[in-house]
Amino acid sequence: MDPRHREADRGQKPLRMEFNLLQAGEVELFVGPGPAGRSARDWVMLGRLVID
Known about the structure:
This protein is mostly loops. 0% of the residues lie in helices and 0% in strands.
């Protein structure tokens, strides 16, 4: 994603992931740096999170 240069990359982007755990455990959500590998001035906005 490159919201600075691509208007289509701006705004909210819904994401749905489905997966099954073989046993009870922890789920870790990790947000890392972008493709340039720099985390300075990167932003993330998390909205509603649902785990069923």
